[in-house]
Amino acid sequence: MGLPEPHGGRLVDRTLGAAESERRRSEASVLPSVGLTEEAAFDLEKIAVGAYSPLTGFQGSADLEAILEQGRRADGTPWGLPILLAQPPIDKIGSRGPGIGDEVLLRAPSGRPIGLLRLEEVYPIPKSRVAERIYGTTDTAHPNVADLAASPSHAWAGPIELLDWPELPDRSLERSPAELRERFRAHGWSNVAAYQCRNPPHTAHELLQRQTLEREEIDGLLIHPVVGRLKAGDYRPQIILQSYRVLTERYLPADRVELASLSISMRYAGPRAALFLATVRKNFGCRSYIVGRDQAGVGRYYEP
């Protein structure tokens, strides 16, 4: 038994080699460009490296409709959360705005060019319906609902290519799905359990991890903290990573554990988010997934 197939059967790779990336950047000055939020920059990278396989770009209206109504993409593939690029309608961009079929330069929040989008569709986001279906509430006290309400009105959809990596507070533990799959194979692991977390560990977390490693069918454990954009009150990425470095180096068996970071914006969508995060870990090569008491919840919107 080898590692599980990526979701959809193929690990997506939308990254460019160094020479091709440099060539495309040199041509990009003539392209229309838009700025990305921190969340969109993280999503761009995760699409490109295959963490969101089988997605090859930001999702269109047919996918969004299918996700809202069925929890699937338009082609029937199970998929819990929409990955959208919120932008103004094209007619609000001005004379340098793109048209359908055009290539668009994507800029990081710092202004640095990091990606390209082949624009296939622009459509209005049904914000109230997305909030209700995905997050179970339209209450803007929910951090993701507040972000959705404040975001631009339309979604731009189409395939992407990654020119450069988004800025991160700490990239030292960031690994692509291909890199982690290679490490798992080098260990001889075929059944890897993923541990999702977004805060420093405490003794109950360590107990869950140790009990997982005691199971006969588990070869290894991936501790994979989300260290992208979190909610107010969560710990800083550097603190989370340092605490897990100490745990894995001093207290857990080094030959049974891999530690890597996952830089995405946390979606607090209860069970929907738990399934989405499990799908992402499947793309990283994990066959099993540890679901915590309230790992994707916030406030009192979801039952633990």
Automatic annotation (TrEMBL):
Sulphate adenylyltransferase catalytic domain ranges (all copies): 173-304
Region ranges (Disordered): 1-24
Taxonomic lineage from the root: unclassified sequences, metagenomes, ecological metagenomes
Coiled-coil ranges (or none): none
Domain ATP-sulfurylase PUA-like: from-to ranges: 5-163
Metabolic or biological pathway, per its Swiss-Prot or TrEMBL entry: Sulfur metabolism; hydrogen sulfide biosynthesis; sulfite from sulfate: step 1/3
GO molecular function: sulfate adenylyltransferase (ATP) activity
InterPro entries on file: ATP-Sase_PUA-like_dom (IPR025980), PUA-like_sf (IPR015947), Rossmann-like_a/b/a_fold (IPR014729), Sulfurylase_cat_dom (IPR024951)
Annotated keywords: Nucleotidyltransferase, Transferase
Native source organism of the sequence: mine drainage metagenome
Name of protein: Sulfate adenylyltransferase
